[in-house]
Amino acid sequence: MNKKIQVQLSVMMFLEFFIWGSWYVTMGIYLPNSLEASDPEIAMAYSTQSWGAIIAPFIIGLIADRYFNAERILGVLHLIGAILMVQLAYATSFDGFYPYILGYMILYMPTLALVNSVSFNQMDNPAKQFSFVRVFGTAGWIVAGLAISYFFHWDSMEGLTKGYLRNTFLMTAVASGILGIFSFTLPKTPPSITGNRKIRIADIIGLEALKLLKDRNFLVFFLASVFICIPLAFYYQHAGQFLGEIGVSNPAGKMTIGQISEILFMLLLPYFFKRFGFKNTMIVAMLAWTVRYLCFAYGSAGEFSFLLLLGIALHGICYDFFFVSGQIYTDSKAGPKYKSAAQGLITLATYGVGMLMGFWIAGRITDYFTLEDVSHNWEMIWMFPAAFALGVSVLFAFLFKNETIAYKS
Q1: Which residues pair with 376 in a beta bridge?
Q2: SS3 73
Q3: Residues with Cβ within 8 Å of residue 288, at least 6 apart in sequence
Q4: From CA 125, how far away is CA 110, in angstroms rounded?
Q5: What is the pLDDT, as a whole number, of residue 233?
Q6: Does 80 have pLDDT greater than 80?
Q7: DSSP per residue over 24-57, as a string?
Q8: Which of 214, 250, 301, 335 is 20 to 30 A distant from 78 in Cα terms?
Q9: How far apart are CA 334 and CA 340, in angstroms?
Q10: How many CA atoms lie less than 13 Å away from 38 in the CB half-sphere?
Q11: Which of 232, 362, 356 is nearest to 288 (CA)?
Q12: First-residue to last-residue Cα distance in the chain
C-alpha cells in the first residue's frame, strides 16, 4: 500500500466517524430540549442504530458483494445521507424527526463495513496496516465532539436554549456530502462475489456459525456479549443527556475523553491479554462497566465532577477489553471456515438484538425515574446498568471455563 492510498483511506476513515460523532452523542440532549421528546422517544431514535445493524448485512450481502464497487455504494449512501441530515435539522417534531433518522441509520450502518472493505482491499498486510488507518476514525469522532463544545459552543446552556444543536445535523450533512463525493476518488473495490453463486440468507447473517453455540464456552461468551449490550445502551443513549441535564459544561467535548481512552487502552490490550488471559480480560471489562455507572450515579457537576470524567475515561476498558477481545476469541474459535460467519453473527446479536433490547429498557427505566420538573433521578437510573453489568460479569466468571487464547492483531 503506497502513501497516497494510505492518505486516502485515512481521510475516508476520519470523515466516516466525524460524521457519526457529529450528531450521535448530542442527539440525546437535542431531542428533549428542542423537540420535547420523551425518554421512550429518545430510545426509539437511538434504536435506529440497531435496526440499521440488523438490515446492514442484507445491503452488503445482496448488493455490495455482488453488483457494485464498494467505494461507489459508499459514495451514494453518504450523498443520500447528506440530504436526510438536512431534513433532520429542520424537523419541528419528533414525529417528523423519526422517519428521517431511521432512514439515515439504515443507510449509514452499512458504510461501516464498506469503509473496512475498501481499506482491506488495498492492504497487503491488514493486521499491521489497518490500525494506522482506523485510528483516524477515532480522531474524527474526537474532533467532532471538540468542535461542537469548544469551537461552536452549540452544547452550551445558551446554545441549548437557542436550539443551536440543530446545527450538528447540518455539519454532518456537509461532511457526508464531502465524503460522498470523495468516495468516488477512492481506489476501486470490485464486488467480492462473482459469477452465478447462489445467495443464501444463512451466509449473509452468519447462521452457519450457530453450530459454534454447541461449545459451552462459546455459548456463555455469546450470551454475555448480548446481555452486556444492555448497559452499553444506557451509555450511548443517556450519557450525553445526563451530562447536559445536570449542568456539566461542554458535554460533547468531555465525552471525547472516552474515544481518547479507546486509543490508549487499545495499546495496552495486547499486554493485558497475554499477561492475564481472555477470561480475566473480559471480567475486568465487565466490572469496568459497573464502576463506570457507579461513578455516574454518585458524580456531580460540582465537587464530584472527577467521578464523571473517570466514568467516561473507563470507556476504553469497557469497549476495547470486551469487544476487541471478543472478536479475537470468536476468530480463534471459529477457525478459517466460519470466521466471517461467526463475526457477522456476533455483530448482529450485539449491535442488533442486544442493543435493541438495551435501548428499549434504558428508555423505559429513564422514563420511570422522570421527576415532576421533567428532570431525572439519575442516581437510581445508573444503578440499573451497574447492577446488570455486575450480574453478567459474575455469571461469566462462574460459567466460563478458562482456556488459552492466543492474541492476534
Answers
A1: 370
A2: helix
A3: 314, 317, 318, 321
A4: 24
A5: 96
A6: yes
A7: TTTHHHHHHHHS---HHHHHHHHHHHHHHHHHHH
A8: 250
A9: 9
A10: 12
A11: 232
A12: 18
92 burial (CB, 10 Å; 0-12 / 13-18 / 19+) is exposed
DSSP-derived secondary structure letter, 249: S
Write down the residue that cell numbers 467535548 correspond to: 253
Confidence of residue 223 (pLDDT cuts 50, 70, 90): very high
Q: How far is CA 279 from CA 270, 349, 389, 394, in A?
A: 14, 20, 15, 12
List, for residues 329-375, the tens digit of each pLDDT value: 988 888 776 676 777 788 888 999 999 999 999 999 999 999 988 89
Q: Is 370 helix (H, G, I), strand (E, B) or coil?
A: strand
169 vs 182: CA distance, rounded Å: 20
Report the pLDDT averaged over residues 394-400.
97
Cβ-based neighbours of 194, under 8 Å, separated by 6 or more? none
List, in order, residues 6 or more apart from 314 with CB less than 8 Å away.
261, 288, 289, 291, 292, 295
**Which SS3 state, helix, strand or coil, does residue 330 take?**
helix
Backbone angles phi, psi at 14, to 5 degrees: -60, -50
Write down the mean pLDDT value for the chain: 91
Task: From residue 207, give the alpha-carbon distance in Å to each of 147, 200, 221, 339, 340.
Answer: 42, 10, 17, 12, 11
Distance CA 109, CA 59 (A): 10
115-124: pLDDT as tens digits: 988 998 898 8
Distance CA 201, CA 57 (A): 10
The contacts of residue 267 (CB under 8 Å, 6+ apart) are none
Distances (CA, A) of 72 to 21, 114, 172, 186, 311: 23, 10, 20, 9, 40
Number of H helices, E strands in the chain: 16, 0
Contact, 333 vs 345, CB < 8 A? Answer: no
Q: Which amino acid is at 61?
A: G
Alpha carbon separation from 177 to 7, 76, 85 (Å, rounded): 19, 10, 10
> What CA–CA distance (Å, rounded) separates 385 from 31?
22
Q: What is the CA radius of gyration of the chain?
A: 21
For residue 300, the surrounding DSSP H or E stretch is none
DSSP 8-state assignment for residue 144? H
Model pLDDT, residue 362: 97
Q: What is the pLDDT of residue 181?
A: 98
Q: Beta-carbon neighbour count of residue 379 at 10 Å?
A: 14
Residue type, 349: A
